[in-house]
Design a protein that fits this description.
Shape: globular
Pfam families: HhH-GPD
Number of strands: 0
Radius of gyration: 19 Å
Helix content: 55-70%
Number of helices: 12
InterPro entries: DNA_glycosylase (IPR011257), HhH-GPD_domain (IPR003265), HhH_base_excis_C (IPR023170)
Structural class: mainly alpha
CATH superfamily of the largest domain: Hypothetical protein, domain 2
Keywords: 4Fe-4S, Endonuclease, Hydrolase, Iron, Iron-sulfur, Lyase, Metal-binding, Nuclease
Strand content: under 5%
Distance between the termini: 24 Å
CATH class of the largest domain: Mainly Alpha
CATH architecture of the largest domain: Orthogonal Bundle
CATH topology of the largest domain: Endonuclease III, domain 1
Order of helices and strands: HHHHHHHHHHHH
Bound molecules: iron/sulfur cluster
EC number: 4.2.99.18
Largest sheet: none
GO molecular function, one term: class I DNA-(apurinic or apyrimidinic site) endonuclease activity
Amino acid sequence: MAATLTEDLIQIYDALFAAFGHQHWWPAKTPFETMIGAILTQNVSWTNAARAVRNLEDAGMLDPHLLAATDTADIAPLIVPSRYYNRKAERIREFSRVYVAEFGADPAAMAAVETGELRKRLLALRGFGKETADTILLYACEKPVFVVDAYTRRIFSRYGLLPEGASYDQTQRLFAESLESDAELFNDYHAQIVRLGNTICKKSPLCDRCPIREVCGTLRCAVGRG
Ligand code: SF4
């Protein structure tokens, strides 16, 4: 009998977990640090974003009240490693202002807002796309929202579960409609996808080392089969 989509997705996750172990995301000490990290990692590797986060921390600036009140010209030099630093300084300051004014700089107050409403509020901020908003919803607010990135689309289209060029929403629906709405599962599943995409399912994939190549005991991946 053919495996259902749900079974496929669970088996893929189990195989990734068995290969890589729990990923313990998001790598941050506080929810606010996660929120700032989500902005800083836009269009750059996490390594670069992490350097910018550390600079803010070392300067004593990883504080919503300080960032909300500081001139962007003073924020930008600290986040140079994240590239696009002038734009990101503006985004960080605007986000911090909203976080202070509308949520009292309290992650619990932010997380208490209904998911759809909070997502809409985040998406209304300048420079906030779906991946940034969903990253904050999942990793800072622990909402069961599946985060989609380029790795997700690449891996699951190669695997044959998504068409080439699938949209963000189409990719998100694949997981949201097939898996239990579980923030812990979504947290680690996305982290596993990033690990696979970063180390094995690259532009030139290393299929012979791939832990999901033979999920269900058969060669399932369209590329890995070759
Ligand atoms: S088998 Fe190859 S193409 Fe398929 S997911 Fe693994 S690394 Fe990517």
